[in-house]
Write a structure and sequence with these properties.
Length: about 100
């Protein structure tokens, strides 16, 4: 329970910085931006997106699929589309793989 509370505090802090504010130099769009998920545990990344109400699609990196079911904690985020810091579209596509296989 303590770890979950710490994650929520970190997420709340991180999400507060995602919505705009300063000039990023990329565009005049001040809407929500894609959070930096690359390298995060897939379970933590999906929790962060779900708490923020951001729809997502997850896809295994080609060649890393397993014949047996794996828990969410057995994967990490290799990349996202759009990339971190870009304006949020309709959803985020995450490419995932077992740790060290990105």
């Amino acid at each position: 329970m303590r770890a979950r509370a710490a994650i929520l505090v970190v997420l709340a802090t991180g999400l507060g910085a995602c919505g705009g504010g300063g000039d990023s130099g990329k565009s005049s769009n001040t809407g929500p931006k894609v959070p930096d998920l690359v390298g995060k545990n897939w379970s933590d990344a999906t929790d962060q997106l779900s708490l923020a109400g951001i729809p997502y699609i997850s896809q295994s990196k080609p060649g890393t699929e397993s014949a047996t079911a794996q828990p969410e904690t057995a994967f990490e985020v290799c990349s996202t589309k759009p990339a971190a810091g870009e304006p949020l579209g309709t959803d985020i596509k995450m490419i995932i793989a077992p740790p060290g296989k990105c």
